[in-house]
Write a structure and sequence with these properties.
6 helices, two-stranded antiparallel ribbon, about 15% strand, about 35% helix, about 200 residues, two-stranded parallel sheet, alpha+beta
Length: about 200
Protein backbone atom coordinates (compact mmCIF):
# COMPACT_ATOMS: atom_id res chain seq x y z
CA UNK A 1 0.00 0.00 0.00
CA UNK A 2 1.25 3.49 -0.87
CA UNK A 3 2.36 5.34 2.27
CA UNK A 4 0.39 8.41 1.24
CA UNK A 5 -2.80 6.36 0.87
CA UNK A 6 -2.48 4.62 4.23
CA UNK A 7 -5.66 4.88 6.30
CA UNK A 8 -5.48 7.62 8.91
CA UNK A 9 -5.62 5.69 12.18
CA UNK A 10 -3.23 7.26 14.73
CA UNK A 11 -2.54 5.16 17.81
CA UNK A 12 -2.20 8.08 20.18
CA UNK A 13 -4.46 10.92 21.20
CA UNK A 14 -3.38 14.34 19.92
CA UNK A 15 -5.02 17.41 21.47
CA UNK A 16 -5.44 20.62 19.50
CA UNK A 17 -2.92 22.29 21.78
CA UNK A 18 0.38 20.36 21.70
CA UNK A 19 1.38 21.92 25.03
CA UNK A 20 -0.97 20.91 27.86
CA UNK A 21 -1.91 23.74 30.21
CA UNK A 22 0.79 24.40 32.78
CA UNK A 23 3.31 22.13 31.06
CA UNK A 24 6.86 23.39 30.75
CA UNK A 25 8.63 21.49 27.93
CA UNK A 26 12.08 20.14 28.65
CA UNK A 27 14.98 21.31 26.50
CA UNK A 28 15.44 18.16 24.40
CA UNK A 29 18.10 18.54 21.73
CA UNK A 30 19.57 16.09 19.20
CA UNK A 31 22.96 14.64 20.13
CA UNK A 32 25.83 16.73 18.81
CA UNK A 33 27.49 14.21 16.54
CA UNK A 34 27.10 12.89 13.01
CA UNK A 35 25.08 9.79 12.17
CA UNK A 36 26.30 7.98 9.06
CA UNK A 37 23.54 6.27 7.10
CA UNK A 38 24.77 2.78 6.24
CA UNK A 39 22.10 0.08 6.46
CA UNK A 40 19.51 -0.68 3.73
CA UNK A 41 16.79 0.06 6.29
CA UNK A 42 18.20 3.54 6.87
CA UNK A 43 18.48 4.25 3.13
CA UNK A 44 14.89 3.18 2.63
CA UNK A 45 13.75 5.34 5.55
CA UNK A 46 15.40 8.43 4.06
CA UNK A 47 14.13 7.79 0.52
CA UNK A 48 10.77 9.49 1.03
CA UNK A 49 10.19 13.27 0.78
CA UNK A 50 7.79 13.44 3.71
CA UNK A 51 10.25 11.63 5.97
CA UNK A 52 12.93 14.10 4.92
CA UNK A 53 10.58 16.97 5.75
CA UNK A 54 9.93 15.43 9.16
CA UNK A 55 13.69 15.33 9.81
CA UNK A 56 13.97 18.97 8.75
CA UNK A 57 11.07 19.91 11.03
CA UNK A 58 12.68 18.08 13.96
CA UNK A 59 16.01 19.86 13.55
CA UNK A 60 15.19 22.20 16.43
CA UNK A 61 12.65 21.50 19.14
CA UNK A 62 10.88 18.14 19.49
CA UNK A 63 7.26 17.90 18.40
CA UNK A 64 4.19 15.71 18.66
CA UNK A 65 2.46 13.93 15.80
CA UNK A 66 -0.30 16.52 15.86
CA UNK A 67 2.06 19.48 15.66
CA UNK A 68 4.06 17.91 12.84
CA UNK A 69 0.89 17.08 10.92
CA UNK A 70 -0.29 20.69 11.18
CA UNK A 71 3.14 22.04 10.26
CA UNK A 72 3.47 19.84 7.17
CA UNK A 73 -0.21 19.95 6.22
CA UNK A 74 -0.51 16.18 6.43
CA UNK A 75 -2.74 13.69 8.23
CA UNK A 76 -1.77 12.51 11.69
CA UNK A 77 -2.00 8.85 10.71
CA UNK A 78 0.39 9.41 7.81
CA UNK A 79 2.84 11.34 10.00
CA UNK A 80 2.68 8.68 12.71
CA UNK A 81 3.48 5.96 10.17
CA UNK A 82 6.51 7.81 8.78
CA UNK A 83 7.81 8.64 12.25
CA UNK A 84 7.66 4.94 13.10
CA UNK A 85 9.77 4.14 10.02
CA UNK A 86 12.33 6.80 11.00
CA UNK A 87 12.36 5.58 14.60
CA UNK A 88 12.99 1.98 13.53
CA UNK A 89 15.87 3.23 11.36
CA UNK A 90 17.45 4.96 14.36
CA UNK A 91 17.23 8.54 13.09
CA UNK A 92 14.27 9.65 15.25
CA UNK A 93 13.50 8.86 18.89
CA UNK A 94 10.82 9.53 21.48
CA UNK A 95 12.24 11.94 24.06
CA UNK A 96 9.18 12.34 26.25
CA UNK A 97 5.80 10.73 26.83
CA UNK A 98 3.19 12.66 28.76
CA UNK A 99 -0.39 12.21 29.85
CA UNK A 100 -3.09 14.24 28.14
CA UNK A 101 -6.86 14.11 28.15
CA UNK A 102 -7.95 10.69 26.96
CA UNK A 103 -4.51 9.10 26.74
CA UNK A 104 -0.89 10.01 26.18
CA UNK A 105 1.25 11.70 23.54
CA UNK A 106 4.87 11.38 22.47
CA UNK A 107 7.43 14.05 21.73
CA UNK A 108 9.71 13.07 18.85
CA UNK A 109 13.21 14.38 18.12
CA UNK A 110 16.06 13.54 15.78
CA UNK A 111 18.73 11.36 17.33
CA UNK A 112 21.58 13.56 16.03
CA UNK A 113 22.07 17.06 14.67
CA UNK A 114 23.88 15.89 11.54
CA UNK A 115 23.05 12.97 9.26
CA UNK A 116 25.57 11.93 6.59
CA UNK A 117 24.49 9.93 3.54
CA UNK A 118 27.17 8.38 1.33
CA UNK A 119 25.56 7.54 -1.98
CA UNK A 120 28.54 5.47 -3.13
CA UNK A 121 28.12 3.29 -0.06
CA UNK A 122 24.55 2.53 -1.11
CA UNK A 123 25.51 1.11 -4.48
CA UNK A 124 24.75 4.42 -6.18
CA UNK A 125 21.25 4.51 -4.68
CA UNK A 126 20.27 8.16 -5.06
CA UNK A 127 16.98 7.70 -3.19
CA UNK A 128 17.86 9.72 -0.07
CA UNK A 129 19.35 12.60 -2.08
CA UNK A 130 16.38 12.71 -4.46
CA UNK A 131 13.94 12.71 -1.53
CA UNK A 132 15.92 15.41 0.28
CA UNK A 133 15.97 17.71 -2.76
CA UNK A 134 12.24 17.23 -3.26
CA UNK A 135 11.62 17.99 0.41
CA UNK A 136 13.72 21.15 0.20
CA UNK A 137 11.85 22.20 -2.97
CA UNK A 138 8.55 21.85 -1.09
CA UNK A 139 9.93 23.88 1.82
CA UNK A 140 11.15 26.62 -0.54
CA UNK A 141 7.71 26.76 -2.19
CA UNK A 142 6.09 27.28 1.24
CA UNK A 143 8.68 29.77 2.54
CA UNK A 144 7.18 33.13 3.65
CA UNK A 145 10.21 34.99 2.23
CA UNK A 146 11.87 34.54 -1.15
CA UNK A 147 14.54 31.85 -0.70
CA UNK A 148 18.13 32.25 -1.85
CA UNK A 149 18.72 29.60 -4.48
CA UNK A 150 21.86 29.71 -6.61
CA UNK A 151 23.27 27.09 -8.97
CA UNK A 152 26.60 27.80 -10.63
CA UNK A 153 28.83 25.46 -12.63
CA UNK A 154 32.57 26.02 -12.22
CA UNK A 155 35.64 24.38 -13.69
CA UNK A 156 37.72 23.36 -10.66
CA UNK A 157 40.83 21.34 -10.07
CA UNK A 158 40.59 18.54 -7.50
CA UNK A 159 42.43 20.75 -5.01
CA UNK A 160 40.14 23.73 -5.64
CA UNK A 161 37.06 21.55 -5.22
CA UNK A 162 38.38 20.11 -1.95
CA UNK A 163 39.13 23.59 -0.55
CA UNK A 164 35.73 24.91 -1.60
CA UNK A 165 33.99 21.92 0.01
CA UNK A 166 35.86 22.46 3.27
CA UNK A 167 35.00 26.17 3.24
CA UNK A 168 31.30 25.54 2.62
CA UNK A 169 31.07 22.95 5.38
CA UNK A 170 32.86 25.25 7.84
CA UNK A 171 30.59 28.17 6.89
CA UNK A 172 27.47 26.19 7.79
CA UNK A 173 28.96 24.52 10.88
CA UNK A 174 30.18 27.81 12.35
CA UNK A 175 27.00 29.83 11.72
CA UNK A 176 25.74 31.26 15.03
CA UNK A 177 22.16 30.46 16.02
CA UNK A 178 19.75 33.07 17.34
CA UNK A 179 17.89 32.51 20.64
CA UNK A 180 14.76 30.32 20.70
CA UNK A 181 11.69 32.02 19.27
CA UNK A 182 13.37 33.27 16.13
CA UNK A 183 12.34 31.72 12.79
CA UNK A 184 14.15 28.58 11.66
CA UNK A 185 15.99 28.74 8.33
CA UNK A 186 17.04 25.82 6.17
CA UNK A 187 20.54 25.81 4.69
CA UNK A 188 21.34 23.37 1.89
CA UNK A 189 24.92 23.17 0.60
CA UNK A 190 25.91 21.00 -2.34
CA UNK A 191 29.17 20.55 -4.21
CA UNK A 192 29.39 17.79 -6.80
CA UNK A 193 31.31 16.89 -9.93
CA UNK A 194 29.17 16.58 -13.02
CA UNK A 195 28.99 13.19 -14.66
CA UNK A 196 31.07 12.69 -17.79
CA UNK A 197 29.36 13.87 -20.93
CA UNK A 198 27.40 16.69 -19.25
CA UNK A 199 30.01 19.38 -19.79
CA UNK A 200 28.25 22.11 -21.73
Amino acid sequence: MDDQQREDRPQEHEPHDPQPEGHQPEDHQPEDHELTIESPQQYKALSHPLRQRLLLALGGQPATVGRLAALLDSRKGTVAHHLKVLQEAGVVRIVETRKVRGGSEHLYQRTTRRIAVTERGAGRDAGPTTALLKAVAEECADAPQEPVLVLRHLRLTADQAARLGTTLQALVAEAAEAPPGEPVHGVLVALYEQAAGRDG
